[in-house]
Amino acid sequence: MSKTKKAAVTKGSIRPGAPAKPAQAKAGAGKDEAGGLKRKLGLRGAAPWAARHAAKHAAEARARAAEPPLPGSARATIRTPVDAEDIKQRIRELHAALAQIKTYRKNLHKTFFDIGVVLKDIQTRRLYEAKRFPSFESFVEREIDLGKTTSLRLVRVASLFQKEGALELGMDRLFTAIQAIDTAGEPETTAPRNIPPPPTSTQALPLRPPGR
């Protein structure tokens, strides 16, 4: 046998103790080191029963949430309030009103009456309570950048005057008129006048006779 054929036979032969071929290794991939079958895993290495287990727990949680909680339980304190949707709606309306005021604020001397109308609506409907403000005064003091005094006067303007007449007079004159109305009922406090005391009467002394 030539050297070339001997080298080919030696290269293709399987020696004892040699590692298995890829096909043989693939055939034995289903067994672990102890000879038992490996557990078949699902997507991302999760066992097939994991999805069924999670779905079962989710169904049980939904069933527990549907039941009324026991008095004093922790779940009873975190339930959604009955008027939650009404509170959300009032908050949305309040934010829309604040956005209007912010737009009107850019041209105050022409839109002051509109700001007063929006503030009056917030006060009448008590929308400020949706953000836990105890009073309208505290709301305008914290949320309106015009200040408490100006905001309250604008509400008075929208309540006492018509829009056309208010725009004709102007904001400054209306504020002066409101201040005069508010102080009209107050008692006048005038400072005491400094009245000079009456002159003291002195008796005329008798004239001395001449030559003495």
Structural notes for this entry:
With 212 residues, the protein is an all-alpha fold. The protein has a domain at 84-183. The chain is built from 10 helices and no strands. The chain has helices at residues 3-12, 22-27, 48-66, 74-77, 84-104, 108-125, 136-143, 148-160, 163-169, 171-184. It is elongated, with a radius of gyration of 48 Å. Mean pLDDT is 74; it is low at 4-14 and 22-34.
| Number of E-type strands | 0
Computed CA radius of gyration, to the nearest angstrom: 48 Å
Show unreliable segments: 4-14, 22-34
User: Which structural category fits the helices and strands?
Assistant: mainly alpha
What is the makeup of the main sheet? none
Please give the share of residues in helix: 55-70%
Per DSSP, what share of the residues sits in E-state strands of 2 or more residues? under 5%
Indicate the overall shape.
elongated
Query: How many individual helices?
Result: 10
Order of helices and strands: HHHHHHHHHH
In whole angstroms, the N-to-C terminal distance is: 191 Å
Provide the residue-averaged pLDDT. Answer: 74
Give a summary of the structure in a few sentences.
This protein has 212 residues and is mostly helical. It contains ten helices and no strands.
Q: Which key terms come to mind for this protein?
A:
elongated; mainly alpha; 0% strand; single chain; 212 residues
Question: How do the strands and helices of this protein lay out in sequence?
Answer:
Blueprint: H1 3-12, H2 22-27, H3 48-66, H4 74-77, H5 84-104, H6 108-125, H7 136-143, H8 148-160, H9 163-169, H10 171-184
Helix pairs in contact: 5-6, 6-8
